[in-house]
Amino acid sequence: MLLVVILLMIIIFFIQAPSLFANRLWKDLGAFIFLWALASVYAVTALEDILFPAPSQVIIAAIQFMCQFLGINM
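-> structure tokens emitted (74 positions)
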């Protein structure tokens, strides 16, 4: 199943990216590659049952790191 998902993501890339590149839609191509990469990583990790922390935990950890870095007491 993992191989099928990877192949589908590659097919999607090769259908969409060339037309964006040929039409010189650089911002659209950048956004497409970014979102395509996120979707690809998510699909593979969902199939492999890899657990990630909740998004709220990631945001809280990032804010705490920034506050420590800037010397802000919370």
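The chain has a mean pLDDT of 92.
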